[in-house]
Amino acid sequence: MNNKEFGKLMEIRTRKFAINIIQLSCSLKYSPENIVIKNQITKSGSSIGANYREANRARSKAEFIAKMGDCVKELDETIYWLELLAEAAIVPTSKLAHLQDECNQLLSIFIAIGKKAKSSIRPAPAFRR
Q1: pTM over 0.85
Q2: Which CATH number among 1.20.1440.60, 1.20.120.140, 2.60.40.10, 3.50.50.60 corresponds to the domain 3-119?
Q3: Are 52 and 14 in contact (CB under 8 A)?
């Protein structure tokens, strides 16, 4: 599988993840506390795919690396909200397991992509007088 095919599959995967997060968010009962969690997890969980899509259309390697960093940041935040939902017993852990697993898999993938992209950057030549 080449990079373009992989990128397209990851765009589909992150969009599916966003849909699953939105569905989870819609299932939360109304309460002032849940509204906060609902807004936060929906923002972080849906922005992963948007940032990944932007990374794939980056104009430079630096921009790509920055967008991949944004993906990692949003995934980490989404993991936090999923943990909070579980630990506060707002949603049964069994209903969150597949989302937590997918979130952790995506996090591992994006960290690896970011590391590989960073390692491929050649240092600028030293300035000589």
Answers
A1: yes
A2: 1.20.1440.60
A3: yes
Domain ranges of the chain: 3-119
The three-state DSSP-derived secondary structure of 26-86 is: HHCCCCHHHHHHHHHHHHHHHHHHHHHHHHHCCCCHHHHHHHHHHHHHHHHHHHHHHHHHH
Q: What tokens appear for 90 in the block?
A: 């707002």
Letter string b/e over residues 64-94, b meaning 16 or more CB atoms within 10 A of that residue's CB: bbebbbbbbebbebbbebbeebbeeeebeee
Burial of 12 (0-12, 13-18, 19+ CB in 10 A): exposed
Question: Nearest-CA neighbor of 37 among 98, 82, 72?
Answer: 82
Residue 126 or residue 44, greater confidence: 44
